[in-house]
DNA sequence: CACCATGATTTGGA
DNA sequence: TCCAAATCATGGTG
């Protein structure tokens, strides 16, 4: 017996946590389960003993061990011993204990599995990641399938996790199989010496599997955690507001104020702005959404800013060096920096007549197209993709009533009119 | 810490 | 699907 234990030990088959039953004691228990002593000395002594034992074991040849085993099997008292063991076993009821009924599928495990599947960590190789990314995109408000930079980064990390997960899983499975066969062989071997029914072996295997699956569950759990962290860092990070860079805000503001009459960048323009600012298209959309609403709510507050950008744009246009409004898809409407007073339909025409044709906001032109004879002013902006067609608001102006009248010329100064603070 | 600025999200409408 | 509007939540500042 002791020899078996030693063999086990020598072959590294110790599983301290494994509930070993039926007399299968793989190790010298008193040595392994020694409580950690405060004083290191005795412990050191123990370790020394164990090492000594191991060394002597390795000195023993396999043949020698086999010979001993054989001797034991052939011992004349062996059948008697076997019978005694059977009797004892029957008395203690060890063999009667029925198999525990099939344990129900652990709901937590199922949850973990489902989550891993949903995240694309488990399940089919490709598509998993993108499915997760798509799901994430949908979760993020489903604005638009941009954020490709973030998502590719996310996908990379996810596939890293996936790789680790699968390799670990494989390792565990392999280890489990190896261990199971080993234990089975061992038990079969032992069954010659002591009573072990096949059922018990089966049960043992079941226990081992459960043990390993609990390890797998830990693996799944930590994988889930990793995915969650990843998600929170990459996707839910949207909650964590980062102010845009100064330069980005400048670019956006420039566009906004130079298109004040119709600050609705087209998809193309948004993309361009996004690229320039190093942000995503949806962030551009958000920014414009916020800007419009906030500008409209408190025009007075933005008057100064508007003037600043009006000057900027005007200067850069006259110098012809302005990069912001000169983009291929963005026709400069710098001249119109002050043409945001489109409120009433009354001064609409005044504005149009007094300004350069290029700068006419689509809103007005469109509404004109409806109300005027065809072939009018529309042609002047026909090439412009800047304005989304959706800007045909019923009354023709995005700001409705809230429109200040002067940002046009900085010389005029702010606060000249804007008697309205509609809000 | 209060307050404001600002990016993001939610809700409801067209 | 985009927008306006309201709201949330965080960042920055005095």
UniProtKB/TrEMBL annotation:
Residues 402-411 have a biased composition (Polar residues). PROSITE patterns: HOMEOBOX_1, HOMEOBOX_2, PBC. The gene is PBX2. Residues 42-236 form the PBC domain. The keyword Cell inner membrane does not apply. Residues 237-299 bind DNA. Gene3D superfamilies: Homeodomain-like. This is Pre-B-cell leukemia transcription factor 2. Residues 327-340 have a biased composition (Low complexity). It comes from Geotrypetes seraphini (Gaboon caecilian). The lineage of its organism: Eukaryota, Metazoa, Chordata, Craniata, Vertebrata. The keyword Hydrolase does not apply. Its main location: nucleus. It is found in: Nucleus.
């Amino acid at each position: 017996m002791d020899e078996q234990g030693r063999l086990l030990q020598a072959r590294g088959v110790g599983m301290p946590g494994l509930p070993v039953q039926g007399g299968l004691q793989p190790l010298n228990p008193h040595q392994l389960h020694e409580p950690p002593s405060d004083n290191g000395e005795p412990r050191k002594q123990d370790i020394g003993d164990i090492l000594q034992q191991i060394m002597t074991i390795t000195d023993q040849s396999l043949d020698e061990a086999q010979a001993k085993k054989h001797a034991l099997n052939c011992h004349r008292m062996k059948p008697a011993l076997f019978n005694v063991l059977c009797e004892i076993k029957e008395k203690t009821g060890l063999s009667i204990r029925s198999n525990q009924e099939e344990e129900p599928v652990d709901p937590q495990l199922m949850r973990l599995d489902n989550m891993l599947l949903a995240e694309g960590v488990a399940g089919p190789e490709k598509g998993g990641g993108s499915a997760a990314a798509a799901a994430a995109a949908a979760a993020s408000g489903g604005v638009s399938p941009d954020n490709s930079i973030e998502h590719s980064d996310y996908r990379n990390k996810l596939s890293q996790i996936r790789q680790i997960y699968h390799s670990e899983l494989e390792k565990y499975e392999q280890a489990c199989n190896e261990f199971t066969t080993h234990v089975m062989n061992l038990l079969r071997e032992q069954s010659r010496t002591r009573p072990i029914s096949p059922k018990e072996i089966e049960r043992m295997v079941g226990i081992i599997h459960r043990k390993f699956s609990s390890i797998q569950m830990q693996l799944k759990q930590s994988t889930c955690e990793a995915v969650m962290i990843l998600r929170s860092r990459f996707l839910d990070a949207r909650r964590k507001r980062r102010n845009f860079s100064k330069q980005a805000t400048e670019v956006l503001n420039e566009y906004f104020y130079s298109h004040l009459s119709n600050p609705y960048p087209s998809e193309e323009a948004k993309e361009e702005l996004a690229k320039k600012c190093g942000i995503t298209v949806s962030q551009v959309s958000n920014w414009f959404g916020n800007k419009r609403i906030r500008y409209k709510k408190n025009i007075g507050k933005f008057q100064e800013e508007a003037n600043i950008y009006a000057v900027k744009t005007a200067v850069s246009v006259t110098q012809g060096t302005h990069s912001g409004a000169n983009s291929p898809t963005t026709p400069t409407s710098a001249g119109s920096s002050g043409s945001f007073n489109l409120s009433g339909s009354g001064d609409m025409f005044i504005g149009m007549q007094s300004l350069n044709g290029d700068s006419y906001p689509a809103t007005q032109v469109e509404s004109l197209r409806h109300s005027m004879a065809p072939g009018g002013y529309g042609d002047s902006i026909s090439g412009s993709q800047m304005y989304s067609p959706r800007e045909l608001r019923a009354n023709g102006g995005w700001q409705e009533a809230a429109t200040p009248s002067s940002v046009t010329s900085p010389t005029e100064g702010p606060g000249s009119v804007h008697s309205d603070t509609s809000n």
